[in-house]
Description:
CATH class: Alpha Beta
CATH superfamily: Alpha/Beta hydrolase fold, catalytic domain
Distance between the termini: 19 Å
Amino acid sequence: MSTSRDPIMFLSGAGLPAWIWDDVRRDLGEGQQTCVASRPQSGRARLRDYAQAVIDSAPPGGYVIVAHSAGGVIGAEVARLAPERVSAFLAISAVIPQPGGSFISAMPAPNRWALSAAMRIAGTRPPDSAIRRGLTRGLNEEVANRIIADFTPESPALYRDRTAHRSWSGWRGYLRTTDDHQLPMTLQQRCAQRLDATWQNDLNTGHLPMLEDHQAVAAAITRFLTARP
Length: 229
């Protein structure tokens, strides 16, 4: 289905397992090489460690980044650290900070202050009820239960560390999710502007479109790659 000659590297959102991309990867077809980025195992990993884990787990040569949610922060850092390796960047309901910014700084006030305080008190794993109410909204109960069971807390530095100041000027796109209760449309639009995304599109899903409508996500990835100059 995909027209990309470069492998596609998927970056999951914070706490989310690699299997969330299984259906999308299958829909893209056997002719499209895909992989899911590794994450550092240490609870004290820095943002640069997250980015380096992506670079180390990538196939040789260039690759396309498809980043979801907090994976956008990691992807942005990868694109700045290894710009010659990243041939295109598609953000899916992803947080994109300004160069030199962080996940938390990308949030509007007062959300950023509330998020920072909540992490200091409760850590980076939301309560099951919050995951069910927000992150897994729109999914059936079986999939929601699986997400909750497999959710892994991230290092606080993923949210607090600032990205490098260097910018990246490759082919960029942003796929918005219009029924998203985790990342409102106004924030997604702001992130698309920060990414300077030339290609933009919408999906009528919640925050996990790869599980709610995997065929639409695969089709959007293909459209993004086909539109690349």
